[in-house]
Design goal:
With 96 residues, this protein is an alpha+beta fold. The protein has 3 helices and 4 strands. It has one domain: 2-Layer Sandwich (Gyrase A, domain 2), CATH 3.30.1360.20.
Length: 96
């Protein structure tokens, strides 16, 4: 099972991510994506989730997409969540 990040590890991880915030329970990023561009991005995010065997919690409200990551089996944030966040940041950088 994946190990939970401690406070220092989480701070370091968040410092290296663009726009993510959170605590040891979950990390979150809210992005603005025009509705017409959302399907392509969500498809790519799903591809990454399948590769990592790890699913984000998504909330879509108009052009706002909230991405929340937590490793439920571990009870909080692990390196797997950080890896997913980095990969999503890469996808978002491609859309800019």
């Amino acid at each position: 099972m994946a190990e939970l990040l401690n406070d220092d590890e989480l701070k370091t991880a968040l410092d290296g991510l663009n726009g993510w915030h959170g605590d040891r329970a979950a990390i979150t990023r809210i992005v603005t994506i025009p509705a017409g561009e959302q399907p392509a991005l969500l498809e790519e995010m799903e591809r990454v989730a399948r590769e990592l065997n790890h699913d984000p919690d998504l909330d879509i409200a108009g052009d706002k997409v909230t991405i929340m990551m937590s490793t439920h089996s571990a009870g909080g944030v692990t390196n797997l969540d950080v890896e997913y966040a980095h990969r999503v940041d890469g996808l978002l950088a491609e859309t800019d």
